[in-house]
Amino acid sequence: MAYYIINGIVIKACLKVRVTVKIVRVLNTNAVVSIDQEGRELIITGAGIGFKKKKGENLDEALADKTYYLESVDDSRRLQEVVKEISEEYLEIASRVVKTAREEGLKVRDSLYMTLTDHINSAVDRYRENIALKNMMKLEIRKFYPQEYEIGLKAVKWIQEQNDENLGVDEAAFIAMHIISAELGNGSDVDFNKITELINAVLQIVRIYFKIEFDEKSISYERFLTHLKFFAARVFDNTIYQDSMQEIYKVLIEQNEYVYSGVRKIVEYIEKQYSCKLTIDERLYLLIHIKRILDEQSE
Length: 299
Known about the structure:
Domain PRD: 85-189, 190-299
InterPro entries: BglG_antiterminators, CAT_RNA-bd_dom, CAT_RNA-bd_dom_sf, PRD, PRD_sf
CATH architecture of the domain at 192-298: Orthogonal Bundle
Keywords: Repeat
Organism: Mediterraneibacter butyricigenes
GO molecular function, one term: RNA binding
Number of strands: 6
Mean pLDDT: 82
Largest sheet: 6 strands, antiparallel
CATH superfamily of the domain at 192-298: PRD domain
């Protein structure tokens, strides 16, 4: 078996030369673990691929459908535990989400394979039991994380195509939350209420102080919003940028006193509300993004 490794997911390819592949672990009837020539663990799925198979037996490559490789050994082992208990079809959907997110430029971690596979399984189970959960953050997620939300909608569509079960837009928002968590790197510790509260507050300060209305379709607004979602996560995760651009910071302040006066309002709010002091680097990035928006408004 041959495969291409692309951003953590392995795409199987066919070669004329046949290579014998050994099974090192059977996860369930439709999923096994093997090791490639470089000693990396691969999760291989396919109908009946693990049926009556044992460790050390040859893999029937004709049954192999999808092959997955995660760079982190710990992530790979955790995913194997998930696959043991859950249908591999949900892993397939999760892998499509990861692939789509990365193709659209989102830097999601491999942990998304595990969390999303498990989540989709639970969501489908709830649907079949007529249990509908309302996502109270749906509007904020759709507004502040449009890319992730659109991928969530696609995932819901893929689930419906596969199972003929429409989980709805609330579930699309839940899937988007998993994507965002994989971007921010804080797993289940991401507090979306606090993050969206801070994003809303910063936008409101800029809107009122500079007496402007945002063009939400503009590139400068999209960039500012992208910065704010990671900025807010850093505030709550105590991983604020360290000072490294003091010289350019001084120059830009001198050249943009009016813009910086608005940045000071944001700094004062965050210090008072969250007891967090922003570094020079954080202030500089806010200055640059707000300046872009104001320049665009003046044009």
